Amino acid sequence: MRQIGLLTIANRPQGGPLFKPAVLNKVASLFFAPRISRTIRIKEVGLEVRELHIPLENESLYYLDPRLKEQFRQKLEALCRKLGIESLGISRVLRPGIMSPRTVEGRRGDYFIISLALLRLEEMLECIRAQRVILVSDQELAYTLAVEISERFKLPVFLQTANPRQHEPAVLTMLRQQGLALSLALLKPAGWKEDDIIFILDEKYRWCQGDGSRDTKKGVTRTVPLTPLTPIDLSDGSEGQAPELEVSLQEQGLNPALHHLAPLMEAYLLDGKDGEPQGIIKHLEEEGARVWDYFLDKVWDAHYNTIQGFERKISR
Fold it and tell me: Which of 192, 194, 269, 309 has an alpha carbon within 20 to 30 A of 6's alpha carbon?
């Protein structure tokens, strides 16, 4: 079996006197240092995952003394050397930049999510004719995904967000450097049309999935339209992307949501691979032939499809 690592952290708020920065900085090295948590075997794809765990959540890690953060980082690197881990998936729960080993290849799953979105889009375009693609996100990965969609499928791409102004510099840069006129707009689910394909990429925008429900988060009531094409949820907390693999992870005690599954799969498929985004995505599509079957919609009759770089079997 091929072996990779997966770095996880606590995913619940931590309160009480022990987690106040003044106290935590005194006891963190004793009680909360990185440790080997478990070994997870995904027999379906021939993969062994060594989970490395830090039992602190983001806020606690953020307020750690810089000296302790460096100790934790060195401990992670030492564990990776001990276990022979060269490719490390990093849970997307962990905020970028808080804790990343320097001597090990770390993968957060952005490129895997982009490749998965392209796979989902290709599947849908085999069945329907879409007029535009809408990306609901504030993440940089949305820019790379927009370029890929525009170049491959020749469809107009719209970026919708609660704060369009913050994306204006990046959108102008894309226009100058890549010639992509990415349309930027305020998030407005009520304006979505029947022939739109929508991707929800951020956890905070999951409320706008087209289930006809009303959301009252933070005191704001939003009416979410019921659309013929339900938005595709590729946010960190989403599940159901690869049911068979997710069941295997869950049975072994690991939360199978995309915040773990994406970095895990990316570390597996990109072991040692680096370069420009387009090259990495192409590599994922080619190497991913061994795993894409598990991410396919199983409602169609079996046939082989090789367009747009994907080679896979679609089974009904």
Answer: 309
Is it the case that residue 305 has pLDDT exceeding 70?
A: no
Which of 194, 228, 262 finishes a domain?
Answer: 228
Alpha-carbon torsion angle 119, 121, 126, 130, nearest 10: -170
What is the model's pTM?
0.87
Instruction: Indicate whether 106 and 163 sit together in one domain.
Output: no
pLDDT digits (tens, 9 = 90+) for 56-101: 999 999 999 999 999 999 999 999 999 999 999 999 999 998 888 8
Task: Write down the H helix ranges in the chain.
Answer: 21-31, 58-62, 66-83, 110-125, 141-153, 168-178, 243-251, 258-269, 277-287
Handedness of CA 294, 296, 301, 302 (dihedral sign): negative
Q: Is 96 exposed, middle or buried (0-12, 13-18, 19+ CB in 10 A)?
A: exposed
Q: 3-state class of 90 per DSSP? A: strand
**Counted domains in the chain:** 2
For residue 179, the domain's CATH number is 3.40.50
Residue 38 has pLDDT above 90, yes or no: yes
267 and 217 in a single domain? The answer is no
